[in-house]
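Could someone model biotin with this protein?
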Amino acid sequence: MNKRILDELYNKQGDYISGQKLSQILGVSRTTIWKNIRELTEQGYEIKAEGGKGYLLSDGCDVLNSYEIHKRISKNIEIHYVNSVNSTNNMAKNMAPHTQKDFSLIVAGSQSGGRGRMGKKFESDNEKGVWCSFILKPEIQPEKALSVTIASSIAVCRTLEDVCDIKAGIKWPNDIIISNKKVCGILSEMSCETGVINHIVIGIGINVLQQKKDFPTDIHDKATSILMETGREFNRAKIIASLCYNMLEVFEHLKTGSINEFLKFWKDYTLTDGRRIKVFKNEKNIEMKALGIDDQGKLIVVDDKGNKSKFTSGEISIRGVLGYI
Ligand code: BTN
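Reply:
Sure, complex below.
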């Protein structure tokens, strides 16, 4: 019922629709309409009710639910929305062996145990971000997994450009940065067997509506949100829909074996290529120069003696980007 009322309110957006009209279209009493409208407002929809005119759905309310996501995606994609979960990556990993689809998405309103890379906690116990995980089942070798991570970072940057008109950058392999602060993190987890990938889970956390006070004080100088950068409250469902399309493009490239084509866009977003970086490797910090990535997404570096090497994200982590070479 709620879904059908929402359909009618959206069709009329910008204008009132009377309770009587709604009850005629949906074949229920005006009291039922009124009760459902009340439920929708409890879910966060801003619906003006005016005697003699009826109901009006306000533009720009940020409600995240299954309806709002599906409404914006015309393709037949398996999407699961939950109000709250410990971690969408955990949920995705549990679901992955049972889903027949090779591309699906899990979205949560909030996460009680959001996970970051290297066993860190990821702050997401609130309804202010996009917390989601894609389950991908591409027929590729495990060595290609890093390229999927990099391509996902590019997909996030494209989404921020498409929806929010923000130019973000990527700190290899997958920290999305605006004004020197992290706006999004990506956690990729893979399951493979004897040289074949069963599935890859790409967990994406984008800070959308947080203000500085919403972040723990120890990350005040490291974290930012789209609201803090633009002063605007973007709709999370709109961001998710765009992300879904951009990730679908990544997946098409994976399926057709042309992921290298997509990795060319790395150049548009890299914050590390051509810069001196501090790398944490074997329990030590070392300074090197980042030259670029190879066709698998490995970071190509050169040390101060001129020796070149390549690293995967499991071998090193970048602790600082120090400046142009
Ligand atoms: C990082 O920056 O270290 C990676 C953060 C990844 C966070 C996302 S939020 C959705 C998904 N579920 C999780 O528990 N983690 C990822």
